[in-house]
Amino acid sequence: MFNIIDTAASGASVHRKWLDAVSDNMANINNATSTSSDAFQERFVVAKELPTHNGTVVSEIKSGDTTGRIVYEPTNPLADAQGYVKYPDINLSDQMGYLIMAQRGYQANIAVVERATNAYQAALQLGKNA
Predict the structure, then answer these.
(1) SS in 3 state form for 18-46?
(2) pLDDT grade, residue 54 (50/70/90)?
(3) Which Pfam families did the record assign (predicted)?
(4) Where are the domains of the chain?
């Protein structure tokens, strides 16, 4: 029973980190920088299976490209002499899809933890009543 809780809890933890990365990406999608600076780097969560049981863990958080996309905005205070600024090259549609997947994965893992906990508590009650 405890293996079920451990496995689901590790899955929830990975999905929570994924939610954090996606929210960082979405929060910084419109951050302009000068063309001489690096653009915000998109964050990617990499998970791996734990060798000791059927759980997962975040093995690393990878960063995307700093190149970004160059946009002509001569009125932007960060614009270079030619009127260009740099934005992160992050696709909002992709991020929304990742957000939905991470959220549903998190919810599913939390539901497993709650159901396993309830089953364990019910088993304890049976032992008390016997």
Answers:
(1) HHHHHHHHHHCCCCCECCCCCCCCCEEEE
(2) confident
(3) Flg_bbr_C (PF06429)
(4) 2-129
